[in-house]
Amino acid sequence: MAQGTIAKKGKMSKLEKRNTLVAYSFLAPNFIGFLIFTMIPVVFSVVLSFMNWGGGQEISFVGLDNFRYIFNNFSFTKSNLGIALKNTVYYTIVTVPLTLGCALGLALLLNKGVRGARVFRAILFFPYVASLVAICVCWNFLLMKNGPFSQILSHVGLGFSKSWTSSRDLAIWAIIIVSTWRNAGYYMVMYLAGLQGVPIELYEAGTMDGANAWQQFKNITMPMLTPTTFFCSIMMVIYCFKIYDVVAIMTQGGPGRSTKMLVTYIFELSFGGEGIATSAQYGVASAVSMVLLVIVLIVTFVQFRGEKKWVNYM
Question: 57, 116, 210, 253: most buried by Cβ count inside 10 Å?
């Protein structure tokens, strides 16, 4: 009896090992890809921020010289880092609430059983999966000097003498509009999932207590959507701080430096850019990347702390 039990346990152990190996074999490609394309480059970037390397010469240790270089004569109106940081923060502060507000509004409208709601959901979500290059080219046409937007605004006395992307004051708003329009549909789906998880009994109880639509939204809908809003805000802030593609396609950081973002500045330092560097400065670019990493970590930490207070308040 004892020998049979031991043998049985031995067979189970072999089966468990086989199942574990099978599970690891399915997970291995993802882990290997993460290690090669994410983990190793991140670690190398941290190390490189303390090095001097242009790609063509030997790597040399320079300590904090790269950080001194980017913070030398730091100014929000003159230095490249200061202007890029100011533009990125401004873009984030405007884009995040605007995108989440539009997404929540659309989700509330489509959550009420509107006829053709599925079609509208697909239409609103489509920009998120469409070709970004095609989207930016179309928006450049819409926002050009004689484009549809300018013509519509000219009828109300707000005509512009140049295209949005060629104006120092309007270029960043062109980026904000495109980003909001592209991402609102994605976060609308997130909010729809959150709204469908709110128990209907809460609204019925609110109606019986005499709560109107605004009171139900404030005291029932928003508190129940707190986890969704927190997740969406975290993801949106991270997206805004690493914005590059829309800027590169629509304005290339211009006109002047009006739409230069942190990642745009990093790219110019890495591969050379007009007014920045005539050759690659990987060490300096890595130092700016570390600054961006610290900023995102601080913002995320503040959001986590604020989310706890928000939940307690709600």
Answer: 253
